[in-house]
Amino acid sequence: MSIRRKRQRPVTSRAIIAFDLDCFYASVAIRARPHLKDKPVVIVQKHLCVTSNYVARSRAKGAVQKMTPVSHALQKCPELVCIDGSDLTPFREASLEVVTAIRAWLADRAREAAAMSNTKPPFCACQRLGFDEVFIDVTELALSEIENGGAPFLFRGHVFGRTDDDELRRLLMVASQLSHQLREYLIAKTQLTLCAGISHSKQLAKLAVNMNKPNDQTVFLPDQSAEYLKTLSPRALQGFGHGTHDKIITWTKHNGKHEGIETVADVLQLFGDGQDGIRRLGTILGNEQHALHILNLCRGVDHTEVLDSGDAPKSISAEDSCRSCTTMEDVSRRLVVQITRLVSRLRSDGQLFSRRPRALSVSYRFRGDGFVGTSRSVPMPTEIVSVCCSQQNKAIPKAIESIKKTALSVLKEHAGVQEGRTFDLTLLAVGASNFSDSDSFKGNGLTTDISEFFIGKAKRIDSGKKKSSGTLHHSQTPTGVSNHVQRTDSKERSTPEAEVRCPICNSKLSGDNLMQNNHIDKCLKSSCTKRDKSAGSVKRARKSLGTRTLDSYFSKRLQR
Ligand code: DGT
Ligand code: MG
């Protein structure tokens, strides 16, 4: 998925809006059950409250904070309505609904602005973070509205801080108007309320979102932001995660520095002394660039852009964090549940975004590993292609079986999880990533994916010779070694020793996988050239193979 970059502007004259939906899971659940509107509601996952509506927050007086055990919350507030939130589908769909509505509104507004000024529509990068956060860079749109003379120079909502920069103030005034109008539109369209923060950087916009909750907005004027940031906990800065925090704490303990890092000012005290500080923090974090970014955040300097990456998520996963999983039977059962969820989501994803995943990740965690799990990535079994691209329901069981086989093999090879071994897993997860467009393997416009392309080829050859007896599978071994094309019997798959034939010329293939692929690659190219000798069609055929030969494609996979 390509990422569109906004035209570079001076970072101090940008207008960025951060949206955060109010008590998101609870709002979505209540929208589907309007009779609960005024009741205290919590959303429960694995006996823990993951969020609650604002009625519950005020009635239970802090007793239903995130990750509170539901039993504890019920003791404090017996009238709580608990809703199971283990199925994320409604939240995922609502999230997509909101982003789609935001994009539609921005596009309309940009078109209107362009029509008035007779120019190209201004581009607003829109970046979704998680389910309920969205960043929008409205600089171009706000400037265009200012040029068109239609925008009132007034702040909407709360204003925090100050600025002496008149141009920035005007820009943020218009951005606050845009934010207000967009929020009103979203509330009317989705019945979900949200907060907004408006500032010249993602960091300050994000901090502003949380200043007036719920259903309100705040403009953060940046002149004294550095002073304000010093008083915050460093964990309040987006980008200053658990890992960074823990590494610094460990370092301070080892170096006899007992001050701790309660506030951003403490971090600057330890590392704010120019290049030396960056180097020291870089050594602790293992990356000087990251150290510089962290110290910049502490000083209120955030140059990161809003990246418009489309609505499609970069990865999709399904996980099961369990108390204990000690037998292969249990592993297998849990895997099937998660893989079924993953495949179902990939099917919907394919329908929405016309793409398919190329990598499968298998994650696991053993008891005693704390929060740290291990993840391994291998090529995604190609059976998923028919599910994502051709939306074939009958292909689903095959895809699940194939992914399960791959996942079990990864667990055996990398984690030693197998029959006869003792293990205790507390996490099992499967994920899909590295998406490519479903038509990236289109075989000369004949079919939708490469496996179908081969099957189609084979069928044409077979029907020509009137001796069709089996089907062709494009599959790979669990370890990622591709058994590129295997002829199978109608009852069971062929063993590696079985005869393999080229789906294009039908000749018997010898040698290892790469040699076979090499042959098919050549055959494929020559058959393309024969059918249509124009240079364009060869180019298209090559492009359809991802600009590489099949050989290099699969040898790359082997190297992974
Ligand atoms: P807000 O923004 O303070 O009005 O409340 P929420 O509920 O929107 O909280 P937020 O924005 O931090 O998170 C969005 C949703 O993500 C939230 O409704 C439930 C889910 N969520 C948040 N934190 C956790 C967590 O630690 N674990 C799990 N499983 N889900 C979480
Ligand atoms: Mg939220």
Automatic annotation (TrEMBL):
GO terms for biological process: DNA repair. Residues 463-499 are annotated as: Disordered. Signal peptide: none annotated. This is DNA polymerase iota. Residues 469-485 have a biased composition (Polar residues). InterPro entries: DNA/RNA_pol_sf (IPR043502), DNA_pol_Y-fam_lit_finger_sf (IPR036775), DNA_pol_Y-fam_little_finger (IPR017961), Rev_trsase/Diguanyl_cyclase (IPR043128), UmuC (IPR001126). Residues 16-241 form the UmuC domain. Residues 486-499 have a biased composition (Basic and acidic residues). GO terms for molecular function: damaged DNA binding. Gene3D superfamilies: 3.30.70.270, 3.40.1170.60, Classic Zinc Finger, DNA polymerase, Y-family, little finger domain.
